[in-house]
Amino acid sequence: MTENHWENTISEQKDRPAPTIVIIGGGPAGLMAAGQAATMGARVLVLEKMDRPALKLGITGKGRCNITNIAEVREFINHFGKSGLFLRQAFSRFFNTDLMDFLENIGLKLVAERGGRVFPASGKALDVVGFLLKWAKNSGVQIRTASPVDGLLIKDGVVKGVVCKGENIYCHAVILSSGGASYAATGSTGDGYRLAETAGHRVIPIRPALVPLETAGNQAGRMADLNLRNINVKMLVDGKKRREAFGELVFADFGVTGPVILTLSGETVDLLQLGKKIELSIDLKPALDERKLDARLLRDLEARGKEPVNSILRGLIPREMVPVCLDSISLPSDRRGNSLSAEERKRLRYWLKDFRLEVTGHRPFAEAIITAGGVDTREVDPRTMESRKVKGLYFAGEVLDLQADTGGYNLQAAFSTGWLAGRSAAQQPAIEK
What we know:
About 45% of the residues are buried. By secondary structure, this protein is of the alpha+beta class. It has 13 helices and 19 strands. It folds into 2 domains: about 5-205 and about 375-425, FAD/NAD(P)-binding domain (3-Layer(bba) Sandwich); about 210-360, no CATH class. It has helices at about 30-40, 75-80, 90-95, 95-105, 125-140, 190-200, 220, 260-275, 290-305, 310-315, 320-330, 340-355, 410-425; strands spanning about 20-25, 45, 70, 110, 115-120, 140-145, 150-155, 160-165, 165-170, 175, 205-210, 215, 225-235, 240-250, 255, 280-285, 355-360, 370-375, 395. The protein has a 6-stranded antiparallel beta barrel. The chain has a 5-stranded parallel β-sheet with strand order 6-2-1-10-19, sandwiched between helices.
């Protein structure tokens, strides 16, 4: 697939009967919903506000697209926290193995990597976009780009259609799958929340999730671009451990990012809004307990006793971290290893096991992978994704108040809710206009 694949996969709506289903948003949830509804015989029109559909999907996972995860249902649901139970019905109907089979059946080869993460074998997110669009077109879906939806047509608690660029488009069902508010350049500007509110739905306040964190001082900035693997990070709230994660961390000019930080960021953002003091405790040597690390330090300091401590430390931590470490524990870089006191060795050991960074904030929506908050799931039927307030209105994807850690969980939720919404909407009986 090429970057211009959509040019050959989008059909214009000309001389066609009115759609039975209008889908707002041509992302993963919207495309899945559209194709599923079309295969069940519905006439489907996707209205995409951007010039090309699925722009965000095409750049997700640093351009590789972590589609799903091979984890069991229970683990999946746990990654969504309190909102996870809402997904039980959708996952029971269309889950990770179903998605993988579906994608491979339409021609997309997949590969599972570390942590059970599933990617396209080509390593190209644009291939996922291309195959989805081709499948949707072949299923009979019409996609109209550069077509932002201005409002919903609702009468007596029943959806009648949408208003698009001043035109009333009537239909039997509407699926709202317009995404969140992250990566605004791809079209995710929060339009769906406004539309949901006009339909009478409650929207849980949105905030960035899976987002880099800003830290106090210049310690992180001094190590910008340094990538640490296999480290453990604890999130401390007012001095007490709240959560922890193991994996990869990256320092930046503003603070920290990387999979471990993104995993912890959702709760961190919420707690910062409550005025809590948040610290990150970084264990640079998680494989060694205090006793074993102390023995390692003694051995290195004795074996290389005549060398300066900054040279010895390069055998323990990356070069970029050495000056930060020495400044933090007030130890001159030219001190010989054999001259360190027991107290100085203790300070070094503590720093290696508990390097602290205070979190002062988070990066903006433009740098967030997903949006936390959204349409209150208590007002949506989990068996169908239909609104409990407006007949014929359905929701799918990131517009809902559903968010999980990194690892393919969020995209699976988008595909699963899209699948369920599309098939449910296709079974919606025609309502008198």
